[in-house]
Fold:
Amino acid sequence: MYNFEFAKPATIGEAVSALSSEGAQALGGGQTLLPTMKQRLAAPETLVSLTGISEMKGVCLSDAGEVCVGGATTHATVAAEAAAHYPALAALAGRIGDPAVRNRGTIGGSLANNDPSACYPAAALASGATIKTNARDIAADDYFQGMFTTALDEGEIITEVRFPVPEKANYQKFLQPASRFALVGVFVAKYADGVRVAVTGASSDGVFRWTEAEEALNGSFTKDAIDALSPPDGDMIADLHGSAAYRAHLVKVLTGRAVAAAG
Amino acid sequence: MPKDHGIGARSKRREDVRFLTGTGHYTDDMAMQGQTYAVMVRSTVAHGKIVSIDTSEAAAMPGVLTIFTGEDFAEVGGNPAGWLIHSRDGSPMREPKRPVLAHGKVRHVGDAYAAVVAETYAQAKDAAEAVAAGTVIEELPAIVDLAAAVANADNRVHDEIPDNLCFDWGWIEDNREAVDAAMKSAEHVTVLELVNNRLVPNAMEPRSSIGEYHPASGEYKLTTTSQNPHLTKLLVCAFVLGIPEHKLTVVAPDVGGGFGSKIYHYGEEALVLAAAKKLGRPVRWTAERTESFLTDAHGRDHVTKIEVGAKKDGEIVAIRTTTLANVGAYLSNFSTATPTFLHGTLMAGPYKVPNVYVNLKAVFTNTAPVDAYRGAGRPEATYSLERAIDKMARELGLDPVEVRRKNLITPDMFPYTTPVALQYDTGNYQATLDKALEMADVAGFEARAAESKARGKLRGLGLSTWIEACGIAPSHLVGQLGSRVGLYDAATVRVSATGTIQVMTGAHSHGQGHETVFAQVVAEKLGIPEENVEIVHGDTSKIPFGMGSYGSRSLAVCGSAIDRAMDKIIDKGKKIAAHMLEASEGDITFENGSFAVAGTDKAKSFGEIAFSAYVPHNYPLETLEPGLEETAFYDPNNFTYPAGAYLCEVEVDPDTGSVDILSFTCADDFGNVMNPMVVEGQVHGGVVQGIGQAMIEHTAYDETGQLLTASYMDYAMPRADDVPMVTVDHSCATPCTHNPLGVKGCGEAGAIGSPPAVVNAVIDALQRGGYAHVTHIDMPLTPSRVWAAMRG
Structure:
C-alpha cells in the first residue's frame, strides 16, 4: 500500500467538496478498494471515507412504500432492517461474503464499483431501483453500463438507493467456489406492472435483464415458463470456474428456481 | 473407563492454549533491535533472459541499505536436491544449479532475481519497484505443458538440458518385461488417463525468515518457518553459503502449518543471512500471500496413464503406469524423491499383485518448483490405483467392494514383499474394509439412493482402500537408493534434580500436537504426570541433530528415539536404585514410576532416583557418572505401513453438476494410538485437504506461465460448509512390528485416501443416474466440470 491522505467528512456536502480535489477517491466499506491498494494496484492520493455521514446510513420506508437504503449502509444492516419490508433483498444482503465483509461493505460501495459478479446490482436492476446521488436520481436501467462501469460522474456519491417493493421476489446465487462471489446470480421480482429478471456474474457486460424470461413470466409466473426457454444469448464470461455455456445454462436453472422459490 | 493420562488418553493439546489465545510466538512476531526489512524483486514473466539490472535509482532512495542481485551469489553454492535419481539407462538425473537469486535467466513467475534491504518495509517495497523498473528482461517462450516440454528440444528451461527432462525412471526396471507380458495376456485391460491436479500448500502462516549476524563472534542465527531446522542448517552451511556449521543456529519457533512446503530450504533464508552479515543488523523477510502462491513449493501435478490387467473375475495380474511429473523450474530439496521412491514403491497398493511396473519422467517447466505436499507421492499412487480399480470393476460388471476384497493381501501373508520393493510388516485390510462398510451403513445405501432420486438427485458411493509408507528409512537403504541424507531421528531426555523432564526432540511441531503427545508417551513410560514433561523442539542450539517432521514420521521415528532414550534413563535409574537399595541391579524392577527390589517392598520413587543422580551423596560414583540425561538416535529398520478403507457418499444435482458430500467414513489402521483425539484431528484435517483437492482446489497456469490462481479469489480452499462430518475409527489396529511404540503414523492418511473415494462416489452417482458415458472426470470436480462431463 502506498501512503495516502485520509478524510472522514460528516456531511454529504463536505464529502462532495473533499472529492473534488485531484486524486481523491471515495471509500465505502473498502472491501474491494483496500485489498487493491494493499497490492499497490491502486494509489489514490486521498481517501474520502463515507462511513461517517449519518444521513447516508440506515433503512427506512418512503411515503410511497419504497425501501430506502442509505448509500453507506452495511450489508449486515440491510440484512437485518430490510427483512420485514423486502425479504428477498435482505436475504441477498445476508449472503454477501462473510460476516466481516457484511459488517464493513456498503450498498453504495458495491453499486459504485459494479463488479460483474456482485449481488447488489442484480437486486437494484430487478427491482427497478432508483440510485440517488448528491446530484440527481438515476434509474437502475440507466445506471449499469458494463462491468465496473456506471453512470456515475467523477466525484459523484450514491447517497441512497430506493427499492420499490415487489409482490414476489427471490434471489438465487450460485457460488464461485473460491471467491464466493456469484458465479451466476439471478434476481426475479414480480411487480403489478410486470416481472423483472436481472442476472449478475454471467455476462462480460455486467448485470443484465433477461428480457425473454421476463416476457415468459409475464405470461405465466411459473418455473415451467422458464423451462420452455433456451438459455440466454450474450457475451457470457468464460473462465476457470465455468464456461460460457455453463453460465448460460445456470442462468436458466437459477431463474426457474427463483420463480419457484418466490412462490 | 477411558484413560485420562498417558498413552491412549484424550489429553487436551497443551499448545492450543497459546495458539488460541494469541500468545504463540511466530517468526514474524519477533521484533529485533536495529532490524531491517528485505523485499524480493520477482520476475513477472515465466521465462526470460536477464539483460540488465540497474539498481542505481533504487540504491539512492530513502532508507535503502543494500541491494543484492544474482551476481552477488554467483560464486556461492546452490540449493541442492536431496535425492539422486538414476534414469533407466543408468545415467544420473540432470541437476541444474538453484541459486539464491536468479542469475542470467528467470525461470518462473515469482523467481527472485534481486532483493532490497531497507530501514522500513515500505521503503524496501518502493525500492524493489524501482529495481524492477530498472531491469530489462527479454521474455522467452514459456514452457508450461508437460508433454510439450519433453517434445520440444529447442525451448529449454535450463539451457544445458535439451529435452527439459530431469530423469526417466523405471521401477523396477527388471519388472518391465514380465509386466508387459502379463498385460498382453491379461483377459481384460483397463486403461485410465488422469491428471493429479497441482496444489498450492496454503499454510496459514506465510514463510518468514530473520537473519542475524554477530561480528564479534562470527555467529549467525536464522529464525525461520521450517519443519526441519537442522536440515535447513546443514543445507545453508554445507551447500549454499559455506558458513561453518558450528557458527549457525537455526530456530524454527511456532510455525503455522507446513504440509510439506516448509521442509525445504528457500533462497530467502540464505539472503537474510548474507544481508545480515553485510549490514551487521538483523534482516527480516516475510512473504506476502501472493508470494506464497507464487513461490512456496507446490504439490502433485502428475499426468498419468495407468493400465490394470485383470482376469474376468477381477483378479489383478498386472499394473503399469506411465507418468509425467512436473518438477517446476528448479529442483526443490525432495522434488526428486517424491514422484519416485514415495510414489512408485506404493503402486502395488494393499493388493497381492504379482506384476507392477512404474515409469516416470520428471520434467522441468517454467512454473514454481513442485515438491512433497501432505502425502507426497503416495496420494498420487493411491489416486491412480483406486480410480483404475474402480473403473476395472465397472467394466467387468463387478462390485468394486468385492474386487478389492478379492485382491487384498490377507493377514496370513505378512510380512509381505511387493513387486515394487517394499516389505509390509503387518496389516489387516479386510478388517478396516469391513469396519468402514459397517460404519457407513452401506447396506442401507440403496434406500437412500431411492430417496435422493425421488428428489431429483443422484446419489453415489465411493470407496478407496489405501496404504501408505511412513517414517521413511532405514538410512543405509535410502542411501543405496540415492538419498543424500540419513533418515534417523534423535532425542535427549533430561531429567532434572526434582524429577521433572525436558525432552529435546529432532521432530518439529507445526500444528501436529507433539508437545502433548510426546509428553503422554514419556509420562506413561516413566510413571510421572504429563505436566512434569516439557517438549523442546525447533532450536538447533538446544536439540540433537534430528531430521524434522514430514512423511508422518514424528511419532514413529522421533517418538521411538524418545522411547530409546527413556530406556537408557531407566537402565541408569536401576543402577542408582540398586546402590541405594543395596540390591543387585538385576533384581531392580521399574514400574509406575517406582524402582523396586523384586519380591520386596523396598522401593525408590523416580523422583528420589533423579535427586540422587544430581546430589550424589549416596551414589556409586566409582562406577557411574552423576546426572540423569540420555540421548538416543533411532534409525528404523523399515517404513511403517498405515492403511485403511474410506467411503464417501455424495449427491449430485443433475441440473447444475453440483456435488454435495453427504458423509465421509474412515476406518484406519495406525497401529497403536497415543492420543485418539489428536489422531482424529489429523484424519479430519487430512480428509478435508483431500476433499479440497478432489472438489475445488486447482492451480492453473496459462500458456504464458502466468499463475491464474494466485489469490483466494480464484484458488478455492475448503471451508467448513464444503465438508461433511468426517466419521473416523482406528480400532482395527495391527501394531507396527519394528518400532518400540507399535505406531505407524497418521498425519497424511486423510489426504491420501480421500480423493479417490470422492471421485469414485461422483462417478458412481453419474453411472447410476444414467450417465453411462462418464467414466472419469479429472479433479477438481467443480460443478462446471461435472456438468460438462454429463453433457458429454
